[in-house]
Design a protein that fits this description.
The chain is of the alpha/beta class and 220 residues long. It contains 8 helices and 6 strands, in the order ααββααβαβαββαα. α4 crosses α8. The longest helix has 17 residues. The protein is globular.
């Protein structure tokens, strides 16, 4: 499945954008070779926690080839995962930096970097089967942390949550035998303004740790 994701060229707008960014680069990374392809999820195949973001950042995952690696949102994600005991180190700057996730898996709702971080509804729907297939393979997942409204909408739809509670930081939603925990996205817009603090973010992952306990049943 990873190979299939990486080879995907289903969305012309996303293909054009991710490849343009990879050619033109940001000045700070001009000597690096950008990944410039769809970004698969990564982590522990026995994960009980799945973290779902929106999409790779143009100069983050689209550059490094690993979701949340090499961008400021990822700095928040990996610090929080490390403090909660899910990661062996608090930083991730490139795909071969030694980061290992324990009990957690990280993916994105859309696998290509979108212009202005805004995938279209059609792009969202085209990518959805990849997340569905990943979740089917991650048979032990019983908690899903969604980062932002977009990821929440995708996951709630995928798991047929009805009625769908309104998104809000810390909101918990039952989805069969799984639990969705909502978090504000660790974008600079949220972290620079104090809309999301590290204490708030840590509380989400501490709650995920308590809920993803051994012995809790998961669908097969």
């Amino acid at each position: 499945m990873r190979a299939e994701i990486v080879a995907c060229r289903a969305c012309p707008r996303l293909v054009a954008w991710r490849e343009e960014v990879a050619r033109e680069k940001r000045a700070a990374f001009r000597d690096e070779t950008y990944w410039g392809r769809p970004v698969p999820g990564f982590g522990d195949p026995r994960a009980r926690l799945l973290v779902v973001g929106l999409a790779p950042a143009a100069h983050g995952g689209n550059r490094t080839g690993r979701v949340f690696t090499g961008d400021r949102s990822g700095d928040w994600v990996f610090r929080a995962l490390h403090r909660a005991g899910y990661a062996n180190q608090p930083t991730s700057v490139h795909a071969a930096d030694g980061l290992r996730l324990r009990g957690a898996y990280v993916a994105a709702a859309v696998r290509c970097a979108p212009p202005a971080n805004r995938p279209t509804p059609a792009e969202r729907e085209t990518c959805l089967p990849y997340l569905q297939r990943e979740l089917a393979l991650l048979r032990s997942v019983d908690v899903i942390v969604v980062l932002g409204q977009f990821a929440y909408d995708v996951v709630a739809r995928m798991l047929h949550v009805r009625p769908r509670p309104r998104f809000g930081h810390g909101v918990e939603v039952a989805a069969g035998t799984r639990t969705i925990i909502c978090s504000y996205h660790p974008s600079q817009q949220n972290t620079f303004t104090g809309t999301l603090t590290e204490d708030m973010f840590d509380a989400v992952f501490a709650r995920a740790r308590r809920l993803s306990r051994p012995g809790r049943s998961t669908p097969r």
